[in-house]
């Protein structure tokens, strides 16, 4: 049955090394586990400095996709099982599958949180750096089935998290890692999404920022606003020379 | 009745301060008046230098929208009235509404003008700096209903006006203000638009450039080319240090 | 009958001069020949340095289009003949038409070649610099009929050729010319295209790189992967000052 893959979850991802302008990105991907209704894909990203030939791993990521029927986008299609080279690979995959399933459920339950504006907030408080942006999902943001690309949402989430981090530190900041991102619900073309971020924790060396994506369906739809995605980003503060700086503590 | 807002007019807008790379733009908007078939929206734009925390008003704009039925895009829907805090707000709004209505009518009447190419024009004449560009309206330029975004048209108009100004002055130039922009007619996806600009006036300190947008409907349509938008832009000439320079007079 | 023009072929194109950031591009085009089912268009590109007024020809190109019916995209429409100023223009046009027709046929026949990955290739061998990228054709890549714009494909082909050239030379490289590009088959929105390039020849001063575009139709289609486009690019190697450098010989 013809189908399309919807991104359901991205596992925790570390950004090990920056990718620079003029470098060539090598992205490779393979299926590492299949459950009845989902596919685990392992992606590796290398940067290649084309003038020196030097290659570096910039990040690795694990993504879970769910196949949706092309004819009925609300129907999840069955996944043909893959063959494993060794029995342990299947067992380890099943363990990862069960763990992420549990985590998705838990994330969904504590997802009622809303970020309210704060009047005249003090520097280094949560209210001072919290930020949000809104975006109308146009044709270029969406797949052929008319749902937003997961990558478009993740880019906007990282943008908001970066603004929160920079407002807190007043320095250059860079993404160190992203905790698991759960895509709870599809978002349809024409929706307006609100991406909100707030500082949730600081250590001496890094900041944790929680980001929510809420979707308001297009005017034509009877549906209410809903929480579509949520995740935690970790940022570090950098000097102009690119050295890590201490992070001001959250009050 | 489900509807979509079509941009009908942007009031005169001053650009008070530049927005720089790396700054965060704050855009806020509220409805300030409703007539039976239109909505006035006041938009404020602030720039925030995230490292210093400094905020500046970069511009304010007033936009008029007309709600069109989703089922029949040629039908204008009735606007539910808003509640005003004070009676004077409604009276002032009605005055603004009547004024813009009159101005739209007048603009439409003097809209027959066409810009013809000039062979071997002398420097500093109208023919020397006049410019035009053509653009095929693709999916990314359009709303979900398949009509061009007003912002796409305005960006192209500013681009043409900037080329006219730079050709006249041979310096860096910057938009100081835009006079009221009237969107006389919708423009459909697949249309080819021609954006033409010519210098209409110079003072010692600034230049006025008139810009027209003409639309040729897609091959499949029986409609003729029509004037869709027109506006006047004011530009100033800048030295490399960003100081205002005198403008060569139009011959 | 309403129709849309599909790009069938671009003749050999020389890039005479670079186009710089901030310059204005002047693109003019005219029909120079019509056969029963195709149109030859001559395009000239000038760069204008707006501050000095200097204009330079950056390149000229000849493109062949085939008109397809809007109602049935597999039907080629008849072209109304143009009037020629002189009889020789028609004769010369017919000669160009016959030549390109022959060349298209020949290119199609030798198009079975595939680029295989090489394990641990030696520097300056074909396998060392060969490169490929994949791209999902989204709405912004396509015309209103849902087929990819020729320009999108050509840009990606040039990108791959540039990576091949830079990997071979480990220097800055620039496109000097593109040999005739034949668009053998349309590519539909939703297809995944693989663009592959390999070094085919080096002289002391330049490199020739062959680029293939293979299309995998969207999951819903029964069609197999097919070769959609192929072309040869010529690149030169440049020093940091922009002077031509000798090219390492292909082993």
TrEMBL record, chains A, B, C:
Organism of this sequence: Casuarius casuarius
Keywords associated with the record: Hydrolase, Serine esterase
GO molecular function, a single term: carboxylic ester hydrolase activity
Keyword Membrane attributed: no
One Pfam assignment: 4HBT
Record-annotated HotDog ACOT-type domain positions: 1-71, 127-241
PANTHER family: ACYL COENZYME A THIOESTER HYDROLASE (PTHR11049), CYTOSOLIC ACYL COENZYME A THIOESTER HYDROLASE (PTHR11049:SF24)
Domain of life: Eukaryota
GO CC terms: cytosol
The protein's name: BACH hydrolase
CDD domains, sorted: BFIT_BACH
Name of the gene this protein is made from: Acot7
